[in-house]
């Protein structure tokens, strides 16, 4: 009788944990969907109302990565609060711009280090100063899950 109660308790605990995990996944997905919709709406408003003039907004421009289906407004200054919404300018110095964002799917989470078509550099979390040591025009960086390392994407300026 005692083992039956224990088994029943374990089954209910397992079901409860699975339900909690599903709820966390659903909430995370909804949060990403809300942020994606917000980003698209913000970009649309920026493009239609400002006609290229961004001085009266907290944004410096729009980051488009067609291969990842990303179109994101970029905040002109860095803060943890701003980074919850969109990528932020981390540094802009002598032709080298650094943008940072979270690794959620609605930000830089779609950057996949298993793709060989692109070149990535993974650095340790405390090596942020290595981001500035480059001749590339643009650096994007985010953290890996649980902040164990940083993923860095370097980009060159294209001639139109």
Integer count of domains: 1
Low-confidence stretches: 116-120
Helix content: 25-40%
Average per-residue pLDDT, rounded, comes to: 79
Strand segment tally: 7
What would the CATH topology be? Sortase, Chain: A
CATH architecture level-2 label: Beta Barrel
Class based on secondary structure composition and strand pairing? alpha+beta
Question: Strand portion, in percent?
Answer: 25-35%
Order of helices and strands: HEEHEEEEE
- Figure out the total of helices: 2
Q: Order of strands side by side in the largest beta sheet?
A: 3-4-6-7-5
* Largest pleated sheet: 5 strands, mixed
CATH superfamily: Sortase
- Assign the CATH class: Mainly Beta
User: What is the end-to-end distance?
Assistant: 77 Å
Q: What would you report as the Rg, rounded to the nearest angstrom?
A: 20 Å
Shape: elongated
């Amino acid at each position: 009788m005692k083992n039956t109660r224990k088994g029943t308790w374990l089954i209910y605990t397992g079901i409860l944990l699975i339900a909690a995990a599903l709820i966390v996944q659903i909430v995370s997905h909804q949060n990403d969907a809300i942020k994606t919709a917000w980003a698209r709406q913000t970009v649309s408003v920026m493009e239609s109302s400002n006609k290229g003039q961004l001085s009266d907004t907290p944004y410096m421009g729009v980051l488009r990565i067609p291969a990842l289906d990303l179109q994101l407004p970029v905040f002109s200054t860095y803060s943890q609060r701003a980074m919850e919404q969109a990528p932020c300018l981390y540094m802009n110095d002598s032709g080298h711009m650094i943008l940072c964002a979270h690794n959620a799917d609605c930000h830089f989470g779609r950057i996949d280090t298993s793709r060989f078509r692109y070149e990535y550099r993974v650095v340790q979390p405390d090596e942020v100063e290595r981001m500035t040591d480059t001749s590339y025009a643009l650096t994007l960086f985010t953290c890996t899950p649980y902040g164990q390392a940083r993923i860095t994407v370097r980009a060159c300026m294209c001639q139109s």
